[in-house]
Design brief:
Layout (H helix, E strand, L loop, with lengths): L2 E8 L2 E9 L5 H11 L12 H10 L4 E6 L2 E11 L10 H4 L14 E9 L8 H15 L4 E7 L12 H10 L7 H6 L3 E6 L12 E7 L4
Coenzyme A binds next to strand 5, helix 4, strand 6 and helix 6.
């Protein structure tokens, strides 16, 4: 189980922060974090519901992490175990996360697959997202897994979809020509691009596309 304390620098001031597994008593706060993190046009049905959160906690508690600053929950990250051989090349979020219920969690899987990561707007760019990601990397190493994998939304892509393919857009973000609020964040977290999924999630801002981004266990 994960429990760590650290100081996060918010406006230059250290603030005590805890990264830990979430449990039933956090569910209302986790849904508030989702509401604040995924405003319209993101579909409300994709915010966590309590039944999904209960499945995360029961099926794979090690993949259910949250970040707390003071007494406030400000971010969360959720993952399950899969074997990628069980899914096609161009997988989608619904299939690989069991619609967010993770009922397809495979305890023998070698890949820690990210279902979701979010941080509330007031605390963005203070390092919480990166600490959550770092904590999942530690989970990969702790469990002796091959890698972490996940589909990164590309919310900056929709505006260019009429002139660029998602692959070209991703190339431009990787070359530094453009910045994307999620893909640039993932690159800064050490994730490596491993392809593009074209019908990943109902997500207008990303024109429904996602960049599949990997982090390999450096010890395997
Ligand atoms: C993506 C998200 C989780 C990032 O969380 P965060 O706590 O703000 O990220 P951090 O502060 O840890 O940033 C880590 C690095 O990414 C960079 N970064 C973060 N947001 C960025 C942005 N919008 N544009 C460019 N770079 C960004 C930071 O500058 C930082 O770089 P550094 O390590 O070199 O200092 C957050 O913006 C979010 O919740 N977005 C909405 C939900 C969402 O779309 N989630 C992704 C689902 S696939």
């Amino acid at each position: 189980m994960m429990h760590k304390e650290l100081y996060l620098f918010v406006d230059g001031k250290p603030q005590k922060t805890v990264i830990r597994n979430y449990s039933h008593t956090d569910f209302d706060s986790l849904i508030d974090v989702q509401r604040a993190s995924f405003p319209p046009p993101f579909p409300e049905e994709l915010w966590w519901n309590k039944e999904q959160l209960a499945e995360h906690v029961i099926r794979f508690p090690a993949g259910a992490l949250c970040a707390e600053v003071g007494n406030q929950l400000v971010g969360s990250m959720t993952a399950l175990l899969v074997n990628m051989d069980d899914y096609g090349d161009n997988h989608d979020w619904e299939t690989i996360t069991g619609g967010g219920y993770i009922r397809n969690h495979n305890s023998n899987g070698d890949t820690l697959y990210v279902v979701d990561i979010c941080v509330i707007p007031e605390y963005r760019k203070t390092g919480i997202g990166k600490w959550l990601m770092q904590s999942m990397y530690e989970t990969v190493v702790q469990l002796g897994l091959r890698r972490l994998l996940g589909g990164g939304r590309m919310p900056g892509y929709g505006a260019y979809a009429h002139e660029l393919s998602p692959e070209n857009y991703l190339d431009q973000v990787i070359s530094g020509e453009r910045k994307d609020p999620v893909i640039t964040f993932l690159l800064r977290c050490g994730r490596m691009p491993a392809g593009v999924a074209h019908h990943y999630l109902e997500d207008e801002q990303s024109n429904h596309c996602a960049a599949i981004m990997e982090w390999r266990n450096p010890f395997i």
